[in-house]
Amino acid sequence: MKLINYNKNTNLIKLLKRNEEEQDDIRNAVLEIIKGVKKDGNSALLYYTKALDKCELTHLQVTEEEIQEAYDAVPESLLDIMREAAINIRSFHEKQLEKTWTYAPLPGVILGQHITPIERVGLYVPGGKANYPSTVLMDAIPALVAGVQSLVMVTPPGRDGKINPTILAAAKIAGVHEIYKLGGAQAIAALAYGSETIKPVNKIVGPGNIYVATAKKEVFGKVDIDMIAGPSEVLIIADENANPVYAAADLLSQAEHDELAMPILVTTSQVLGEQVIEEVYRQIEEDLNRKLIAKKSVDDFGFVFIVKNLDEAFSLSNEIAPEHLELLIENPMNSLEKVKNAGAIFMGPYTPEPLGDYFAGPNHTLPTSGTAKFSSPLGVYDYMKKSSILSYSQDALENVYEKIATFARSEGLDAHAKAVERRFEK
């Protein structure tokens, strides 16, 4: 990890830059896959699954028997934990529900907003070496709380043609309606354009590798997407009283995700900063199974910034706009108003980031790479759409129609003007 004494001349853009630009060859390969799926449907999906996932499928859709077999294979203790997590996730997201509303600003005038769920949504869940049942719960439950009628999950099969049992068990617990054995860019293409087996969706959510992310970019416009998720990141603001063992463990909880993950400590104490660096490398060697991934992450993208005071710490954090922000400081709730840009805020020494990943209830699908400056965690609102409501009586329109006509003609739009005027012609 790099220890840096932060000041106003510190070049954050250069320091935090990750070489993750989209490469032309990846985009070209994705476009070819999308073109193939649009043209050949199921046959293209089966071809790409065999070529890329090394799996020869006999059917794309996961059957009820396969789901039940997977569910029965998962230990009951883990099922209980997932069920409890699902309850927490549902309870939190139910508070995000919006309702249709109207008001009457004048006699004869009704205005408002009509809230409806997106009808059909596709959920991408990573597979292969990855196994993320938590992603299933976090992405599916808000959709169902919103009222989505058709929730379609795609996830890549193993070489044996099967889906990881915990992923299918999580889908059953959440209540996913359809599941298909598809991964990569071909799965995104199938969700966007459909095939003989798969009906197209209106929106695609869920994380994936660079091919999945690129495919989501390419189909945006045909369908909506949630976000383009980058490598994970955590930023911890710590004062001199913070526990270096806790801080190091929390930094590593993100570093083990990906070699490009970015663990950052911002502290007012150089002594603590040095202790955390020492503790990070100690824990890598003593405790971690994914030590090679974690070590490369902290070596290449791990930073400890020493700042003058907590105000400077929050200013730096807001500039970085981290996916996860931990506050290991005295009375963190008193500093909440200083946070302007963060995906999720974890307050106090007993609120570690994995609590949010798995169990507490708030969504773990969060804006990365500084996008917390303008975007939010995945939520019920991502699965809903709004329509404006307008209702004028004859008298109410008569009071304003001449103003509307004048405004329309100022833009050169006579037909707009006449559309209101004709209602009051003798």
From TrEMBL:
This is Histidinol dehydrogenase. One of its GO terms (cellular component) is cytosol. It catalyses: L-histidinol + 2 NAD(+) + H2O = L-histidine + 2 NADH + 3 H(+). Gene3D superfamilies: 1.20.5.1300, Nitrogenase molybdenum iron protein domain. Zn(2+) binds at Q254, H257, D357, H416. Substrate binds at S232, Q254, H257, H324, D357, E411, H416. Signal peptide: none annotated. Its cofactor is Zn(2+). One of its GO terms (biological process) is L-histidine biosynthetic process. Binds 1 zinc ion per subunit. It comes from the Bacteria.
